[in-house]
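Today's session is about reading a structure prediction critically. Students often jump straight to the picture, but the first step is always the sequence itself: look for stretches that repeat, for charged clusters, for runs of hydrophobic residues. Only then move on to the predicted structure, which in these notes is written as discrete structure tokens rather than atom positions. Here is the chain we will use throughout the hour.
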Amino acid sequence: MSDLIRLYSYWRSSAAYRVRIALNLKALRYDYVAVDLAGAGGQQHAAEFHKLNPQELLPVLIDGERVVRQSMSIIEYLAEVYHTAGYALMPPTGRERARVRSIAQLIACDIHPLNNLRVLGQLQQQFGADQAQKEAWMRHWIGAGFVALEEMLGGNPSTGEFCEGDEPSMADCCLVPQVYNAKRFGVDVSRFPTIARIDAHCLSMPEFDLAAPEKQPDAPR
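Below is the predicted structure for this chain, in token form.
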């Protein structure tokens, strides 16, 4: 552990957005290191960043001498290493943790990968998809995932103010960025009342609000 945490991030990266929320919920101060995924061919492909993360993906968290990659691993690392700080991020029982992981992975492993920059680029390069077709692709897969997620959340007595109970967890860290993307690409989120309710409640908290893409130092002004 270190007093100086660095987060390699991009303002519109959903995965980095998750970690920004988690760091805020943990009340941990950190240095924001911007990596431009879109401009000049993508800074993530530069040799210096490749050494940091051979996958050339964000986010990457540096805590002292420790390098942690992958947003879900970073969030669980923060929960375990900084267990006395801020919100727990992971609930106390095995059953509750399993449910949090299942919700988080539905979003981070099933919805988000189909809509990230690499997949959209391949749709364009290999199949000639234009912007309208790429956005239709995104709406389809976000919508399909949200149908299942809404059923899981709305029909479960464990759902409270947040995805699991009445305290924010890793599941909410994943939910809010995905709802942001859904709204950005024209998904009618009102079709999913439980998702919309939890998202609104989360965004009423400064920890979520301050992590928003538009509030990051590398966001366009």
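Discussion point for the tutorial: The mean pLDDT is 94.
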